[in-house]
Amino acid sequence: MNNFVKATLRPALNGGRLVAALRVPLYANSIYLVLNSGVAAVLGFSFWVAVARLYSAHDVGVASGLISAVSLLAFLASFGLDQGLIRFLPAAGTKASRLLNSVFWVSGLCALAAAAVFLAGLRLWSPALLIAQQHPAYVVTFLGAVPALTLLHMMSAAFIGYRRASLAFVLGTGASVLRILLALALVSWFGVFGVFAAWSLALAAVVGLGVVVLLPRACPGYRPSITIEGTTLRAMGSYSFLNYLTLLFWGAPVFVLPLIVLNRIGAEANAYFFVALSMAGLVWAIPAGVSTSLLVEGSHDPRRLRQDLIRSVGIICAFLVLAVLLVWVLGRQLLLVFGRGYSDEGFWVLRIVSLCAFPMAVNYLYIAVRRVEKRMVEPVMLTVGIALATITLAYFLLPGSGIRAPGLALLAAHAGAAVWALPELLRRLRKSGTVSR
């Protein structure tokens, strides 16, 4: 066992081999994906700090609602096609351009339809956002923002699938920086629409940059065209939809837990819980990024899945232990940025949910292996179990156990799922197997 641990950690920890390790696509892509999440979080925080200082609280509240709606609609309209691209694009060969254009058109049209339906029914499901109907410019911006965000997700997935996560990093960072600059520029002319327009125009700009400049670099010969190839889409349809369900149930606790805390013990407690949960997301980005990189490498060469899984374990161990230790030691000081109450009330929540990263890593890697094998029923079952266990435990533990309860529920649910998934990962680590492309 000691020899196995040393073998997995050596590539990530040996300083003399660091430069050589970065030439390994698994390591390089993992680092860019983690960096993308971290930089996006920091710049996203900066955007909202700038907006809060420039615009009224009412405008910020409405704009954040519009942005949340766009984000939700973009996810719902994707149907998992972004994950399908990561898995199928490496083997697409000369059909890559047609596959890309087909996915872009289908996902973009679905997003446009979702945005139109949402706008038409605003009075029914979100009267507070009726401002989006009050001016043609608002309508056009909303109708454009949902497809733009959907296409950004698809394009980022394409770069990741091509082992060019650095280009996804460029897109994400560019969008975040541009949002801040546009928010500063539009403050003199617009109210709430200035915040939403800054966020939406940045999306449109980076999508244009991606299509014209970056995508041809990742996929030589790519040209945008009106193409919808039914045969190709059907081949990845069931795989993409099961991925869609997996992501939906995986993310459900993060969306639902703040609502449970809000309704069971109040808005102030939810503020402390939400900030701690959001900060823990930076730690969770490590296994998330590495597992995505494992999926990419397994899609390029399934015969190396065992070797890439060993490397993934190594890089996760190296960075995750350090990240969790930093949270446990410095978490109180980090939360002080938000205020004394956040530090006092949210510190132990942050510690607990940061520990979730360890069982999460097992579950992320298990799901990545199954994605490479194109066996998606088990990941759906796993994530359904995690979602149901987390939400049920949190509901019944509150309000008696305070805001630590949902964190403990999340930790228990992922730990239970990891116990179920770990034997399969250990089997994969001990012996090689053949996986079809």
Question: How would you explain this protein's 3D organization?
Answer:
The chain is mostly helical and 437 residues long. The protein is 83% helix and 0% strand. It has helices spanning 2-13, 18-22, 25-54, 57-78, 81-88, 96-120, 122-125, 136-161, 165-186, 192-218, 230-265, 267-300, 305-335, 340-355, 357-373, 377-397, 404-430. It is globular.
Estimate the global geometry from the Cα principal axes: globular
According to DSSP, the number of beta strands is 0
**Pairing-aware structural class of the strands and helices?**
mainly alpha
- The amount of beta strand, in percent, is under 5%
Main beta sheet: none
What is the count of structural domains?
Answer: 2
The helix content is over 70%
Low-confidence stretches: 4-9
Number of helices: 17
Q: What characteristics describe this protein?
A:
437 residues; 2 domains; mainly alpha
Give a brief description.
This protein is an all-alpha fold and 437 residues long. Helices cover 83% and strands 0% of the residues. The protein contains 17 helices and no strands.
Task: Explain the layout of strands and helices.
Elements: H1 2-13, H2 18-22, H3 25-54, H4 57-78, H5 81-88, H6 96-120, H7 122-125, H8 136-161, H9 165-186, H10 192-218, H11 230-265, H12 267-300, H13 305-335, H14 340-355, H15 357-373, H16 377-397, H17 404-430
Helix pairs in contact: 1-13, 3-9, 3-12, 4-6, 4-8, 4-10, 5-8, 5-11, 6-8, 8-9, 8-10, 9-10, 11-12, 11-16, 12-13, 12-14, 12-15, 13-14, 13-15, 14-17, 15-17, 16-17
